[in-house]
Amino acid sequence: MHLTLATLLHGFDFVRPGSKPVDMTEGIGLTVPRATPLDVLLSPRLPPHLYG
């Protein structure tokens, strides 16, 4: 799990669509889920031939 997350963070740029701030409202449940999901757009940092 840690390696997968590190690979995503290292290999891609994360951008939020729009300019609204992140909604941190909590939903109902035992694990305190977010009331609204976080939307992000991923764009590769490196040239495509390096991901093969």
UniProtKB/TrEMBL annotation:
Q: Name one GO molecular function term.
A: heme binding
Please provide the record's keywords in A-Z order. Heme, Iron, Membrane, Metal-binding, Monooxygenase, Oxidoreductase, Transmembrane, Transmembrane helix
Is the keyword Membrane in the record? yes
Q: Which cofactor does it need?
A: heme
Q: Name one GO cellular component term.
A: membrane
Compartments, record wording: Membrane
Q: Mind telling me which InterPro entries this protein's record contains?
A: Cyt_P450_sf, Plant_Cytochrome_P450_Monoox
- Which PANTHER family does the record match to this protein? CYTOCHROME P450, CYTOCHROME P450 82C3-RELATED
Question: Would you tell me the protein name for this molecule?
Answer: Cytochrome P450
